[in-house]
TrEMBL record:
Residues 1-58 form the HTH lysR-type domain. Pfam families: HTH_1 (PF00126), LysR_substrate (PF03466). One of its GO terms (molecular function) is sequence-specific DNA binding. It comes from the Bacteria. Belongs to the LysR transcriptional regulatory family. Keywords: DNA-binding, Transcription, Transcription regulation. This is DNA-binding transcriptional regulator, LysR family. It comes from Paracoccus homiensis. One of its GO terms (biological process) is DNA-templated transcription. InterPro entries: LysR-type_TF_proteobact-type, LysR_HTH_N, LysR_subst-bd, WH-like_DNA-bd_sf, WH_DNA-bd_sf.
Length: 294
C-alpha cells in the first residue's frame, strides 16, 4: 500500500471534503478524488460515503485510520532522522485565537524563521478552538485547557486585559472615575452567542451585559475602539499597536487570563515538533512580557 495514498486518505478524512484536502495538500480536488479511488481499488472497499455534509468515513475507512496514522507517524520519524537539528525545515502550522494570532505570533514566527531559515510558519486564526485531531494544525494555542481529546497540554503564560478607549472618545465624554460612570457609554465586545470559550466573556466581569458594537473578532473590536466608537476590554499586549488607546479604571477592572499550548498526543515522540514547541513557548512568553511592559 502506497504511503502517499494513505496521506491523501488521511487528509480527506480530516477535512471531510476533496477540496479541503486538496487545499491542505496543494493538490487539485480531482486529483485527490482519483487517488482516493485508487486506494479504494487497492483495498477492495469503499472508504468514504458522500453525504450532504461532505465525505464521511465508511466502517472500512474507519478501520484504516489507525494504521494510516501509524504510517504517518513512522514517515515523520524517518524524515526527522535524516534532518539535522540545526536545520529544521518544512511546514509548521499554528492555530491560535485572533488576539494572539494578530499581536503576538507574527513576531514569534519571525524569530523562529530567523533561527531556521528553511522553516515555513503558517498561522491559522479561527473563531473557535483548532481541531488537532483533524490535523487542522500541528499545535494550537488556546485560552483554556480542553476537557477532552488525546492532547498534551502545557500552560504558557498569563496575560492581562483592561477596559480601554481611544483618547478622542474620552475627550468627548465626562471623566470616568467610577464603575457607575460607565452607564450611558457605548460598549464594544463579543457577540454573546459566538463566545466559544467562557474565558472570552470579558464584559460580564464588569457588570455590563450589552455591547452596542460587537464582533466575534477581538481585532475588529480593537479597531472599533481605535475609531473612537466606545469602550471595550482589550489585551494589554495589543495596546502598543493601537496609538491613542488608553486604559480606563485600571484599579477597578483588571482581568488575567492564560494561554495554553495544545499538541496531539501522538506527536510527543517527534523531536522536531518538541523543539519547535519549546521555541514557540519561549517566544510567546517573552513577547507578552515585552509588550505588557511598554
Amino acid at each position: 500500500m502506497d504511503w502517499d495514498d494513505l496521506r491523501i486518505f488521511l487528509a480527506v478524512a480530516r477535512a471531510e471534503s476533496l477540496s479541503g484536502a486538496g487545499r491542505r495538500l496543494n493538490m487539485d480536488a480531482s486529483t485527490v478524488g482519483r487517488r482516493v479511488a485508487r486506494l479504494e481499488a487497492a483495498v477492495g472497499a469503499a472508504l468514504f460515503a458522500k453525504t450532504p455534509q461532505g465525505y464521511a468515513l465508511t466502517s472500512e475507512g474507519g478501520r484504516l485510520i489507525a494504521p494510516a496514522e501509524a504510517a504517518e507517524k513512522a514517515a515523520a520519524a524517518a524524515s526527522e532522522a535524516t534532518r539535522r537539528e540545526a536545520g529544521i525545515s518544512g511546514q509548521l502550522r499554528i492555530g491560535a485565537p485572533d488576539g494572539c494570532a494578530n499581536y503576538l505570533l507574527p513576531q514569534v514566527a519571525q524569530k523562529m524563521c530567523e533561527t531556521h531559515p528553511r522553516l515555513e510558519v503558517q498561522i491559522v486564526s479561527l473563531p473557535r478552538v483548532v481541531n488537532l485531531s483533524k490535523r487542522e494544525a500541528d499545535m494550537a494555542i488556546a485560552v483554556s485547557p480542553p476537557d477532552t481529546g488525546r492532547l498534551t497540554v502545557q500552560r504558557l503564560t498569563d496575560y492581562r486585559l483592561h477596559l480601554a478607549a481611544h483618547r478622542d472618545y474620552l475627550d468627548r465624554h465626562a471623566p470616568i472615575t467610577e464603575l457607575d460612570d460607565l452607564r450611558g457609554h457605548r460598549m464594544i465586545g463579543y457577540i454573546p452567542d459566538m463566545i466559544y470559550d467562557r474565558e472570552l466573556d470579558y464584559l460580564s466581569e464588569t457588570g455590563i451585559e450589552t455591547a452596542q458594537i460587537s464582533s466575534n473578532s477581538v481585532s475588529v473590536q480593537m479597531q472599533a475602539i481605535r475609531a473612537g466608537a466606545g469602550l471595550g476590554i482589550v489585551h494589554d499586549f495589543a495596546i502598543p499597536f493601537a496609538a491613542g488607546v488608553r486604559r480606563v479604571l485600571t484599579d477597578r477592572i483588571s482581568l488575567t487570563r492564560s494561554f495554553w499550548l495544545l499538541r496531539h498526543a501522538d506527536d510527543r515522540a517527534s523531536r522536531r515538533l518538541t523543539l519547535l514547541a519549546d521555541q514557540l513557548a519561549q517566544g510567546l512568553r517573552a513577547e507578552v512580557a515585552r509588550l505588557e511592559a511598554l
